[in-house]
Design a protein that fits this description.
By secondary structure, the protein is mostly helical. It has one domain. The radius of gyration is 21 Å and the shape is elongated.
Length: 94
């Protein structure tokens, strides 16, 4: 696998992990009991911690990418492993 491919796949894992991590632990002002700033949206987060989100996102993305790369190297799961309906065999007949 080329270095650019490794980087691109890692970025995809990182963005996916960010969408998984972002809503975890977020509370709005009504839930925390804090006073709202004038003009603020009712659903705006009151306890957003970007450093925590970056750290957890990087940790999750690195773990997911590590499993992906190990599967790429050792071939634990392949197309034949998850082909429950023998579609590859049926495509050869067409």
């Amino acid at each position: 696998m080329q270095l650019y491919s490794v980087f691109a796949i890692y970025v995809l894992f990182w963005v996916t992990a960010a969408f998984i991590i972002l809503p975890i632990g977020i509370r709005n002002h009504h839930e925390t009991g804090k006073e709202m700033v004038r003009g603020q949206s009712d659903g705006a987060p009151a306890n957003f911690r970007p450093l925590r989100v970056l750290l957890l996102t990087t940790l999750l993305a690195t773990t997911m990418f590590g499993l992906f790369y190990l599967n790429y190297v050792y071939g634990w799961i392949s197309i034949d492993t998850i082909d429950f309906f023998n579609s590859r065999e049926r495509m050869k007949d067409v």
